Amino acid sequence: MTQGPQGPGWGPADGDPDGPDGPRHPLAPDALSAEDRADGGVGATWSERRRARKHARRAARRAKPWWRRLVPTWRMALGGVLTVLLLGIAAFVTMYTVVRVPDANAAATAQSNIYYYSDNKTEIGQTGEVNRVSVPIGDIALTMQHAAVSAEDRTFYTNRGVSLTGMTRAAWYTVSGRGLQGGSTITQQYVKNYYLNQNQNVERKAKEFFISLKVDQTESKDTILAGYLNTSYFGRGAYGIQAAAQAYYGINASQLNASQAAYLAALLQAPSAYDVDTATADGKAAAIARWNYVLDGMQKLGWLTPAERAAETFPEVKQPSTIDGVSGQAGYLIDIADQYLSDNNIVDPASLAAGGWRITTTFVKSDQDALAAAVKTDLTDKLPNTAKTRDVRAAAGSVDPTTGRLVAAYGGPDYAEQEYDDATRTDIQVGSTFKAFDLAAALQNHATTQDGVPITPSTIYDGTSARPVQGLPKGVSYDPTNEDHVDYGDISVRYAMMKSVNSVFAQEAVDAGLNNVRNAAIAAGLPPDTPSMNAADPSIALGVATPNAIQMAGAYGTFANHGQQITPWSVQTLSHDGQPTTLPAHKATTAFSRDTADTVTSVLEGVVTPSGTGYLAQGLDRPAADKTGTTDNNKSAWFIGYTPQLVTSVGLFVEDPTTHAHYPLSDVTGSRVNGGAFPTQIWTDYMSAALSGQPVEQFDLDSAATQSSVPDQPATTPSSSPSTTPSAATAGPSAPPATPSGPATPPSAPPQTPTAPSTPLTPAGPSEPGKPADPTLTPANAAASP
Question: What pLDDT is stored for residue 596 in this prediction?
Answer without folding.
Answer: 96
